[in-house]
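Reading a protein record of the kind used here takes only a little practice. An example makes this concrete, so a full record is given next.
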Amino acid sequence: MALAPSRIGGVFPALVTPFDADDRIDFSALRKLVARLLDAGVHGLVPIGGTGEYAALSQAERTQVVETVVDEVSGRCPVVPGVLATGFEDARQAAQEFTSAGADALMVITPYYATGRQDGIAAYFRRLRSTVDAPILLYEIPGRTNVALEAETVSALADDGTIIGMKYSSYDVPQFIRVVAAVGDKISVLSGEEPLFATHVAIGARGGVLTTANLMPERWIEIYEDARNGRLRKALAAQKALDPLLRAVFAETNPGPFRHLMEMAGHPCGAPRLPLLPPQEPVRNALREALDRVDRGLVSA
């Protein structure tokens, strides 16, 4: 049965891809990560998005990661891998392989480098949906792609069933409000910005795809429940306590600093792949200071 928008909600960790000392994917560590996130009660998982270093993996590696996550999850929550291809043919290949691997849906980035008009981007998503047997979540992140969609474009894709959801990664709150108003209940809009997560949920997001939920899923689940149940002041206070940590995590290109944070917290996942590098000393120091200030409500090793 196809995944419905109603099942796209809550906290979806954007999975880090663990590497070993030889820069190979550590599938044992990946299974361990997935298992403890499931035990923590996450609502879904997003392998090989930006946090999972899609661009640094070969297509064969991406598919292996999806197969491993699907196998470990064994139907307990939706698995929605990222498709961060620049153009249609690469996106189609990845989407078809991930669907064959058992993905419940696909989180597909807006095409970039060769950027199109709004109608061209809409046609891209419609054509991709016609070639794969899996629901699609639109992934918009203008800070990385320089591509932003109008609320009317998103609404049209929701109206004709091309998409069942959207990951919104932008600090443009007025635009977020316009998108939520335009799509109504037709799709599930997810926040992709941790510093705005509680605010996004309070004004219409049904959850979020969050990097630091790899490390502190229970904390983000609590914030989510408070924000969606009218306890926004409490949710914002809990999120504010994480602000120094979030600033340090995103001080350099994700997931470089976050990998170092995982190691400091007792969940090593290796160094990032080139061109990313481990964070510089000032960021490492900020991460340590911020982690020391956060009370240890973290998943145990």
